[in-house]
Design goal:
The complex is a heterodimer of chains A (889) and B (564).
Chain A (H helix, E strand, L loop, with lengths): L1 E5 L2 E5 L5 H7 L23 E4 L4 E4 L10 E3 L3 H15 L16 H9 L15 E2 L5 E4 L8 H10 L5 E3 L6 E3 L16 H5 L5 E3 L10 E6 L8 E7 L2 E6 L13 H5 L14 E4 L2 E4 L2 H19 L4 E4 L6 H15 L4 E2 L7 H11 L16 E5 L3 H4 L1 H14 L2 E5 L12 E3 L6 H14 L5 H7 E2 L1 H8 L4 H8 L3 H13 L3 E5 L1 H4 L4 H15 L8 E4 L6 H6 L6 E2 L3 E2 L3 H11 L11 H9 L5 E5 L3 H4 L3 H10 L2 E6 L11 E4 L8 E4 L4 E5 L12 H11 L8 H11 L16 E2 L23 E2 L18 E6 L25 E3 L1 H6 L7 E6 L2 E9 L7 E5 L27 E7 L1
Parallel strand pairs in A: 1-5, 16-17, 16-26, 18-19, 18-22, 19-20, 21-32, 22-23, 26-27, 27-28, 33-37, 34-36
Antiparallel strand pairs in A: 1-2, 3-4, 3-5, 6-7, 7-10, 8-9, 11-12, 12-13, 14-15, 14-28, 24-25, 29-30, 30-31, 33-38, 34-37, 35-36, 35-38
Helix pairs in contact in A: 2-3, 7-24, 8-24, 8-25, 9-18, 12-15, 12-16, 12-18, 15-16, 21-23
Chain B lengths: L2 H5 L2 H12 L4 H11 L3 H9 L11 E6 L2 H5 L2 H11 L7 E6 L10 E5 L6 E4 L7 H8 L19 E2 L16 H6 L4 H8 L1 H11 L2 E2 L4 E2 H8 L7 E6 L9 H8 L1 H14 L4 E7 L3 H16 L7 E7 L7 H10 L3 H8 L5 E2 L2 E7 H13 L1 H7 L2 E8 L5 E6 L4 H8 L5 E6 L5 E3 L22 E6 L4 H15 L5 H18 L7 H15 L4 H15 L1 H10 L13
Parallel strand pairs in B: 1-2, 5-14, 8-9, 8-12, 9-10, 13-17
Antiparallel strand pairs in B: 1-3, 3-4, 6-7, 11-12, 13-14, 15-16, 15-17
Helix pairs in contact in B: 9-10, 9-13, 9-17, 10-18, 12-13, 12-14, 13-17, 15-16, 20-21, 20-23, 21-22, 22-23
The chains are: A alpha/beta (889), B alpha/beta (564).
């Protein structure tokens, strides 16, 4: 410890901390405009000056480290005079328009000027105002107000990793800008809004401003979009969400959010919100009371059970709703109705992860934490457009490359925003993942780069893997995958030889008829090199929705009870029966797709849908439409009318994430608490309340208070055993967390696997169901875009929608030229299952022979083209490979 | 490739791309961004810091030198006039102030380029007579019109000392063989065989780099604190002043001596990495140094020493050593300034010593003829003497003579109000200080040194001159900190108030206070160095300032609407 004096008071400080940090610890405020704890201190504003009495020197406290013997004055007359003059200098080039500035009470400059008695007119002004950039739909830039603190530049460079903003010019004209002063959306900017949120003045402002003045309250909660699980605060005023901020103490994501988290949460205020239960009367939906709705729905369910048995009823739970509600939904299905027909959209994204990793390790989730991404020496990303789908995780990957020297290896058919950070990007043909994964493993074994100790001590089945791999030398698979053999070998060596290497994958791996095999091959690769159980390693499936991990954990699956306890296990069923007081059916239920097929076969008659929109998101949606039309009872609870609710007999208004308590479990297994910020609109209710009402009406009483539900979960699910709301107030806990004293588990499989030894599961390559032919010569791959989410129920009702309000077909310039298609042309896209119309976006991002479309847009419903052919085990449809034809209209 | 390696050499790439098209096109930036995997905003931002890397295509680009010599002749007014006069040009025209143009000998230098034009250099003797210039620029000149005046070769204006330690005392005529015949390279060979003696000679000589005014041995001893692989030497063959290319003269006139000096130092001090920094446009020096480096490599002199040539902009809005480091690393000036602050900047991750080419060129003769003798002679430096004096000259002047003697020799002292010494970091001195030695050291109250003596006549208003110096300070600061970015402008406006009779009683005190605060609080010493000349002007010419404040009059008669 170092001894020094601060404002006359002796203090001890850890060497290596700055004077500013020391002062803050002592409760002394030092003004600063350019400092943020997550950024490299630059000392550019010079406001944080302090004086050393012993030397008489003035220096900036943000980048001066404590030294023994210093005697620091933070507020001496000299310091105050210098600060005052610096503030005067700022105002000499800053408009004094505080009364109309939207930064208003958040402006640090205004506060410091007021504290120092600076009025803003002490020095003659430059009298020259800089141009205002108002051409971005979400960000207003007024560089006359810019004080050149550089927080935006450093944040974009050091946290976001995009480098979309940089200083330009020198002298007084030194200010941030985008490349060639372009609109932010025309640059490498991802519109994460980090720069806006950290700007200490009014130079960068969110638009449109929804509210002037301060908020009534801020409520800490969790983002409802992707699986990253970013912590944020909702700013509430007048009963509305008026803004979002991150940078909350204890949050894992610090100041980071993505475009959706920052600009996509205003849907909560949207006038389209459902506020009253609706009942179908002919073509119309008519408002009814909750009492009527619950009574009638429960009555019909009972009638169907009576006529056709409980297996004639199915429920779609939701990856968007809370753990507690998913738990209640599956409990209602199993205990109140008596069916295992409960599933949700994890079926469409990561069911192969559950199947594949459970087989290899005994549990299926991201093995490592987002926080240790930057520890990796090598990061292999495959089948994941991370920047688009998990933007805040992509930020960590970029930081690892830019600031920690990690090598990024990408194996993905499309050019990705992450590609520019990659050491190498290999582009396999879609649907050939097992082939190249096996070839990587073959190279590693052939060159004896495998981790013999790990394999011997921690795994089983190595010999049978080696036998299978013999069939996959890279030269042979080059013909299948299109990846040059030597390049694949380079990637294999880089992955194997790294001390710490991690794998990140998403739906580019899972959404195939061999998705489970793909996941198994990835598990083989990681075990082969022993890249598990350490920081900066692991297998990291990136979950697509905010609570898809939690919905799976909670047993919203037809074959698993909460905690991945199998329904066909007598012991597990008995455990639940003891708490629920009802028998649990032993036969696995139907998956999402099977429910649709069963409906068409007349076996399933009633479907309850909570927060899902299968009409847009499920494969081969013409079949889905036929099925939904055939149901005797379709009940949809959602926050907005959807393409699915258009067919519903009853539509129930749900509460949004901002209007309820509960927990979400993020992709890194972090259980995090939502706090209620607003009352639901009209008579809208939480899914938990609706379930409780329906269940009660059916004679089975369910406790729906979220905290109480979590207590019940903790008794039945060992990995949640130590989860308690009181522990979640200041950040989440990563499961497994066995008991109230357990700190949580950032890294899985450190000492052993849940199944004991890790199991090598040899897999063989099999081609996709469809291959291009003369009639359908292109491969269609589907996915997401940055500015939309799922079926757009939320994103299209937020400002973020302005960035990309229409769908498009991404097509390679070579293919486009052959077909006479130019950028922006209307095109017809047909497959064996249907046809749709879209707009062409000619881009080299798509490889020749492959076109890409997002699945978000109902009016360009790409799932009319996709096939319902499924992975035999995980039952996931093959969204990533469909043969199509594209024609200019 | 790591990020440092990617950025190093980036500036040369940008200069090259600019030379091909005349400007830095967006698609070129995007391509470089793609190839180097660097954000295009970084490349754009970097380019925007240097006027030599324009990002806009123009049909007529007129750069008017705004360095102290040309400014004294009214070049800033010429910029304003040309902006109006050329407004009839059919096409996109831009007239801008320029710094670092290597045409010190032209009263007002103009560099004219644009789409389809070969770059030409003009000079305007009189801002009032721009008709010929305008006609030429607009392409309206007829055969009857007198021809515009183009630049002349620098050598026509230069004279060198007869002193034994003169820059050209060992003359080079294009080959190593000739250089050897004249007695060159012996220093290096001796240094290799007798390093103790060589070091003693250097220590005894007291050789200081005139541009940074610091004894070389002290700086080299600083390097010795670090391990050999962490040491680097940079020969700065560019200008340390906004208007002159004098250090570059050494590189082009005597490249063997410069490189020999560099290799001696590298050998003596165990430095394995060397770099030479050259302005992109100094083709002559570039060719000379390249050839020389090739010759020395063939001879095996660079076996243990890697020397690379980096080319970049002539004018760096930064402390010179920080700016050179930033350009070599392909980084923003402000980022490097924030990293270095008041300490010598590391370059490419090494502790670096930056020495001017002129200083290095003196090392061979010191070794050859002895350090003690050099010390006795006092040494020489390349100086320009210009302004209200006779013909502008480059003078290799002994450092022991006074500035008054120098001015006297070159045009006389009559009707001189001041001699402004050492450009942006020096200051204007009244006749009572003309006895000051040319080779003075800092510590006399102000900043560094530069190779320029400007003669200021009685008709020049010192308030206006101070206003210009504030303007120049703004151009010399990167802008990365608030005092550096905003103080020069604020001071310039306050001085404008004084000149126009709008000043309050406390205006001068406020200027002094602002400069004091900026000097104490800025990120690096640049703002202090470039604003202190204003304090000198206020101190030495207080009466003239007070006449503006109190009597609202301009003794020099320059400030309009006021008389003497």
């Amino acid at each position: 410890m170092t001894s020094l004096r601060i404002n006359g008071k002796p203090v001890k400080a850890k060497p290596g901390i700055t004077l500013l940090e020391l002062a803050q610890k002592q409760g002394i405020e030092i003004p600063t405009l350019c400092h943020h704890p997550a950024l490299t201190p630059k000392g550019s504003c010079r406001l944080c000056l302090v004086e050393d009495e012993t030397t008489g020197e003035l220096f900036t406290s943000c980048n001066t480290y404590v030294t023994g013997g210093m005697s620091i004055l933070t507020d001496s007359q000299r310091v105050k005079q210098a600060r005052k003059e610096i503030l005067e200098l700022i105002f000499a080039q800053h408009p004094v328009d505080c009364t109309v500035c939207d930064s208003a009470n958040y402006c640090k400059l205004r506060r410091y000027a007021a504290d120092a008695g600076v009025q803003g007119n002490e020095l003659p002004g430059r009298g020259e105002f800089l141009p205002v950039f108002d051409n971005n739909p979400l960000i207003h830039r007024d560089y006359s107000k810019c004080i050149g603190c550089g927080i935006c530049v450093r944040a974009c460079r050091e946290i976001q990793g995009a480098g979309a903003v940089e200083f330009k010019g020198s002298g007084w004209s030194y200010r941030p800008t985008s490349s060639f002063n372009k609109t932010m959306d025309g640059s490498s900017c991802e519109l994460c809004g980090l720069c806006v949120s950290l700007c200490p003045v009014g130079a960068l402002i969110e638009k449109p401003p929804l509210h002037r003045g301060v908020e009534d309250k801020r409520v800490r909660t969790v983002c409802p979009y992707c699986g990253c699980g970013c912590n944020l605060e909702l700013r509430i005023a007048g009963g509305k969400v008026i803004g979002v901020r991150a940078d909350i103490p204890g949050s894992w994501n610090g100041p980071s959010l993505c475009a959706k988290g920052r600009y996509g949460l205003f849907f909560v205020n949207h006038p389209d919100r459902l506020t009253q239960p609706l009942r179908r009367e002919g073509e119309d939906l008519t408002e009814i009371s909750w009492e009527e709705a619950i009574k009638e729905i429960a009555g019909k369910i009972k009638e169907i059970i009576k006529e056709s048995g409980p297996s004639a009823v199915g429920i779609l739970a939701s990856a968007k709703t809370t753990n507690e509600e998913n738990y209640l939904i599956q409990k209602f299905a199993r205990a109140a109705i008596g069916t295992n027909n409960v599933d949700h959209c994890a079926r469409l994204c990561h069911s192969p992860t559950v199947a594949g990793l459970a087989g290899a390790f005994g549990s299926a989730a991201m093995t490592n934490s987002i926080g240790d991404i930057e520890e990796a020496e090598v990061i292999l990303v495959t089948g994941s457009n991370t920047t688009v789908n998990h933007p805040v995780i992509a930020q960590a990957i970029k930081r690892a490359v830019l600031h920690r020297g990690a090598r990024l290896l990408i194996i993905d058919p499309r050019e990705l925003p992450l590609s520019r950070y990659a050491t190498i990007h290999l582009k396999p043909r879609p649907g050939t993942d097992v082939a190249w994964l096996n070839s990587m493993a073959q190279t590693i074994v052939e060159e004896s780069l495998h981790n013999k100790k790990f394999i011997q001590e921690r795994t089983e089945g190595f010999e049978s893997l080696v036998e299978t791999l013999k069939k996959y030398p890279p030269e042979k698979t080059e013909k299948i995958t299109g990846i040059p053999a030597e390049q694949l070998r380079q990637v294999a060596r880089a992955y194997a030889q790294a001390r710490r290497a991690s794998i990140f994958y998403a739906m580019g791996i899972t959404q195939h008829i061999r998705g489970t095999d793909n996941v198994r091959a990835i598990a083989n690769l990681a075990m082969l090199c022993g890249h598990l159980g350490k920081p900066g390693t692991g297998i990291n499936p990136l979950r697509g929705q905010n609570n898809v991990q939690g919905a799976c954990d909670m047993g919203a699956l037809p074959d698993f009870l909460p905690g991945y306890q199998r329904v066909d296990s007598k012991e597990a069923r008995e455990k639940f029966r003891a708490v629920w007081g009802r028998e649990v059916p032993s036969e696995p239920g139907l998956t999402v797709g099977e429910m649709m097929e069963a409906t068409l076969e007349g076996k399933l008659r009633a479907l309850l849908v909570f927060g899902e929109n299968p009409m847009v998101t499920d494969a081969e949606s013409s079949l889905v439409e036929d099925a939904l039309k055939q149901l005797d009872l379709l009940v949809v609870q959602d926050i907005f009318p959807t393409e699915t609710s258009a067919f519903a007999h009853y539509v129930l208004p749900g509460a949004s994430f901002a209007e309820k308590e509960g927990t979400f479990t993020s992709t890194e297994r972090r259980v995090q608490k939502l706090n209620k910020a607003l009352e639901p609109p009209g008579t809208a209710r939480t899914d938990g309340e609706t379930i409780a009402l329906l269940s009660a009406e059916m004679g089975y009483h369910i406790q729906h208070q979220p905290a109480e539900v979590m207590k019940e979960i903790a008794t039945l699910v060992s990995t949640y055993g130590g989860i308690d709301y009181r522990r979640l107030d200041k950040g989440g806990i990563q499961w497994p967390c066995a008991n109230p004293q357990h700190p949580g588990t950032p890294i899985l499989h450190v000492e052993s696997f849940p199944r004991g030894k890790g199991l090598f599961q040899p897999v063989d390559y099999q081609p996709p169901v469809e291959s291009p032919d003369h009639k359908y010569p292109l491969i269609l791959s589907t996915g997401r875009i940055l500015y939309q989410y799922h079926s757009r129920t939320m994103s299209k009702r937020s400002p973020i929608d302005r960035m990309e309000p229409q769908g498009f077909l991404e097509i390679n310039p070579t293919d486009a030229e052959k077909m006479g298609i130019r950028d922006g042309d209307a095109v017809k896209v047909s497959s064996r299952r249907g046809k749709i119309v879209s707009r062409a976006r000619v881009s080299a991002s798509a490889p020749a022979g492959v076109v890409f479309m997002s699945f978000h847009f109902a009016d360009e419903a790409v799932n009319r083209l996709t096939s319902s052919a499924r992975d035999p085990l995980a039952k996931i449809p093959e969204f990533k490979v469909s043969a199509v034809r594209v024609e200019k209209i | 490739m790591d990020n440092n390696a990617k950025r190093s050499g980036l500036m040369e790439l940008l200069h090259d791309a600019t030379a091909r098209k005349g400007y830095l096109a967006e698609e070129v930036v995007e391509e470089i961004s793609f190839q180097l995997n660097l954000p295009s905003s970084h490349i754009f931002g970097l380019a925007s810091q240097f006027s030599e890397l324009p990002i806009e295509k123009v049909d007529l680009l007129v750069k008017v030198c705004a360095g102290p010599c040309c400014a004294l002749r009214g070049s800033l007014d010429l910029v304003k006039t040309l902006k109006v006069e050329l407004s009839t040009f059919k096409g996109k025209v831009r007239v801008e102030e320029a710094y670092g143009l290597p045409y010190w000998h032209l009263p007002i230098a103009l560099e004219v380029s644009g789409r389809g034009r070969k770059e030409k250099i003009f000079h305007a003797f009189d801002t009032g007579k721009i008709t010929i210039l305008k006609k030429t620029l607009l392409g309206e000149a007829t055969k009857e019109d007198p021809a515009p005046i183009y630049a002349l070769e620098l050598k026509n204006f230069a004279s060198f000392s007869k002193d034994n330690y003169s820059l050209l005392s060992v003359k080079e005529e294009g080959s190593l063989k000739h250089y050897r015949q004249q007695g060159g390279m012996s220093g290096l060979e001796k240094a290799i065989t007798d390093s103790k003696k060589t070091r003693r000679a250097l220590d005894q000589s007291g050789l200081a780099d005139f541009y940074i005014n610091h004894p070389l041995s002290e700086d080299l001893n600083r390097l010795l604190q670090f391990k050999p692989s962490d040491r680097m030497i940079i020969c700065d063959a560019g200008s340390r002043e906004v208007e002159n290319g004098l250090s570059g003269m050494a590189a082009s006139y005597n490249p063997y001596a410069v490189l020999e000096g560099m290799l001696v130092i590298m050998n003596l001090y165990g430095i394995s990495q060397g770099a030479i920094y050259l302005p992109w446009k100094d083709i002559k020096s570039y060719k000379a140094l390249n050839k020389c480096l090739g010759d020395l490599t063939k001879e095996g002199f660079t076996k243990d020493a890697r020397i690379e040539i980096f080319r970049g902009p002539a004018h760096l809005a930064c402390m010179r050593d920080i700016g050179v480091a930033a350009v070599i690393e392909g980084r923003m000036l402000g980022d490097k300034a924030a990293e270095a602050g008041f300490t010598p900047p590391r370059v490419l991750g090494k502790e670096a010593l930056q020495v001017s080419a002129e200083t290095l060129s003196k090392i061979p003769v010191i070794i050859q003829r002895g350090g003690a003798n050099y010390k006795k002679s006092g040494g020489t430096a390349l100086i320009t003497i210009t302004g209200k004096t006779g013909k502008s000259r480059v003078e290799e002047a002994p450092l022991s003579i006074s500035i008054g003697e120098l001015a006297q020799k070159r045009g006389g002292l009559s009707a001189l109000k001041a001699l402004h010494l050492h450009g942006s970091s020096g200051g204007p001195f009244p006749p009572e200080r003309f006895g000051m030695k040319l080779g003075y050291r800092p510590g006399e109250g102000f900043g560094g040194t530069g190779p320029q003596v400007l003669a200021i006549g009685e008709d020049k208003c010192m308030v206006r001159w101070a206003e210009y110096l504030a303007h120049l300070s703004g151009e010399m600061c990167c802008g990365a900190c608030i005092p550096g970015r905003n103080t020069p402008g604020a001071v310039e406006r306050l001085l404008g108030d004084i000149a126009s009779g709008k000043a309050k009683q406390n205006t001068m005190a406020k200027i002094a206070s602002l400069i004091g605060t900026a000097s104490e609080t800025a990120l690096c010493p640049q703002v202090r160095m470039t604003l202190k000349p204003i304090l000198l002007a206020m101190e030495y010419f207080q009466g003239e300032f007070m006449a503006h404040v109190e009597e609202k009059s301009c003794p020099a008669g320059e400030c309009k609407s006021k008389s003497k």
